[in-house]
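Milestone 3.1: sequence recovery, worked example.
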């Protein structure tokens, strides 16, 4: 669990730096087509998804191992009941592997256990936050699905319902265009054309994918900003 958490944190830090670079490029190419902006955000998504990276001194981000387990554990001091008191602090910190192993066995014999390290505590907090985000995603999906199930077929892949308050596209494989009821014909034609443009650009893939990545990297505020900007660029 700790190895996975540290890998997620390192990817998140690298992706956060990429977000800042993409933000600058968005300002430089403000008048560029929106699909170019979405393409830039895909670089961030690739860094979050891909477990491997190529490090180079000529790269914009020459390093990716920002936090390592050995760096964290090297700064932690463990207090074994009945053991740390009998060993001087300097001797305990400079003990070899045999002394540490003996101390651990003594702790087990006396019924004591090693306390959770800092990285283990944070990994558990991260896992709990990810679970909350996934639960929110699932509940939101089924709530919207319930609204769509009560909607009436209009034409092709267009549906309308009284519980639908604003137009949107629902579904990954066979996307539906969902519209509010009592929309006049002229407005409906423009809205349908707008939503069909979203489907052609596969925007109904990008936005859910961005939120899925956010459920894993919820602790990074820079990625929350990236998701907000992605949603704006899509529109």
């Amino acid at each position: 669990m700790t190895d996975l958490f540290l890998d997620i944190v390192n990817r998140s830090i690298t992706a956060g730096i990429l977000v800042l670079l993409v933000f600058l490029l968005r300002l430089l190419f403000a008048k560029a087509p929106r699909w170019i902006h979405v393409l830039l955000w895909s670089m961030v998504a690739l860094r979050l998804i891909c477990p491997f990276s190529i490090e180079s001194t000529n790269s914009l981000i020459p390093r990716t191992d920002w936090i390592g387990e050995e760096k964290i554990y090297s700064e932690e001091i463990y207090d074994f009941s009945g053991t740390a008191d009998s060993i001087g602090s300097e001797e305990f910190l400079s003990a070899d592997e045999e002394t540490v192993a003996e101390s651990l066995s003594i702790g087990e014999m006396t019924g004591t256990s090693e306390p959770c390290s800092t990285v283990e505590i944070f990994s558990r907090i991260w896992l709990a936050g990810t679970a909350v985000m996934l639960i929110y995603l699932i509940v939101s999906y089924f709530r919207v699905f319930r609204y769509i199930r009560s909607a009436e077929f209009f034409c092709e892949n267009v549906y309308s319902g009284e519980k639908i308050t604003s137009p949107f596209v629902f579904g990954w494989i066979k996307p539906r265009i969902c519209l509010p009821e009592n929309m006049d014909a002229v407005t409906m034609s423009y809205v349908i054309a707008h939503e069909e443009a979203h489907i052609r650009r596969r925007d109904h893939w990008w936005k859910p994918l961005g939120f899925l990545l956010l459920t894993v990297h919820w602790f990074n505020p820079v990625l929350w900003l990236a998701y907000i900007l992605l949603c704006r660029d899509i529109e």
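Residues 71-97, 103-114 have pLDDT under 50 and may be disordered. Strands lie at 152-155, 158-161, 168-170, 176-180.
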